[in-house]
Structures are given as C-alpha cells and as structure tokens.
Amino acid sequence: MERAARLIQKNKYSRELLTDDELMKAIWPAAVGKAIAAHTSSARLVRTTLIVEVEDAIWQKQLHGLSLQIVNRLRKIIGTGCIEDVEFRIAVPRRRPQRAESIDSSSAQRDASEDAEAIEDPILRKLYKMSRKRTAAG
C-alpha cells in the first residue's frame, strides 16, 4: 500500500484525481495497520491536521499517545508538509436499520384461531379470521 501511496503522491495529476481526504482515507490503513484501522476511520483533512474518528474514549486516549508516531508514518508514506498533527474524535455511533421482527406464521395462525373461538357470533368470527389472515399475509 505504501508504494501505491507514493506513486499517487508523485503523480503530477494526483490532485485532479484524488482529493486530500480521499488520499488520507486510502493510506490510513497502511499507516496504522489493520488492527487500529478496524477501530478507526480517517474522516477529513483540515489544513495540516488529520481528523480521525475512533470508536470510544479508550481508543481516543490510547491513540493520542501514539499520535507522533502516526504522524511520522504518514509523513513517511506521503511526504512531509502535508500532515502536521492528528486529532482523534469519538465517532457518532451509527444506528443499524430497524427491521420488523419475523413472526412464526403457524403460531400467529394458532393465536388467531384461539382468539376467534372467543367470538360467539359465527359471521363475526369468520370475518375476524379472514381479516387476521389478510394481515398476516401482507
């Protein structure tokens, strides 16, 4: 990965092809390794400060102690002058999409038939069963 980053940096068209943020996101795993990259993500570059999102305060504290080493590794990959500091921020937790709970159709039908038996009027009972069947189907 380091070779690819160096080639991109040396390429005179690199600024046209990639933004600084995209370049940082691409080289971040190579600079810090897979273990750290799994718990962090390069967010954006503000002037000469790289903003990195971390999972929690523990990662933030641990990586803050390593920030000088990380900056040196980034400089080694892309050259000096681009990054002077790294700032670690706690990422906003991403919510997973809510999914409808799957209902066992046989138990739902069983419950519907038990509920229907409590209805004394045969016409209303039949309407209730049909309504529950439609609701369960779709």
What would you note in describing this structure?
- By secondary structure, the chain is of the alpha+beta class.
- The chain folds into two domains: 2-90, 2-Layer Sandwich (GMP Synthetase, Chain A, domain 3), CATH 3.30.300; 105-137, no CATH class.
- It has helices spanning 2-10, 14-17, 20-32, 34-37, 57-65, 67-78, 105-117, 122-137, and strands at residues 40-46, 49-54, 85-90.
- Strands 1-2-3 form a three-stranded mixed sheet.
- The protein is rod-shaped and about 85 Å long.
Structural class: alpha+beta
The biggest beta sheet is recorded as: 3 strands, mixed
Number of domains: 2
Tell me the number of strands: 3
Keywords:
alpha+beta; GMP Synthetase, Chain A, domain 3; 2 domains
Task: State the gist of this model.
With 138 residues, the chain is of the alpha+beta class. Helices cover 58% and strands 14% of the residues. A 3-stranded mixed sheet has the order 1-2-3.
What's the structural blueprint in terms of helices and strands?
Elements: H1 2-10, H2 14-17, H3 20-32, H4 34-37, E1 40-46, E2 49-54, H5 57-65, H6 67-78, E3 85-90, H7 105-117, H8 122-137
Parallel strand pairs: 2-3
Antiparallel strand pairs: 1-2
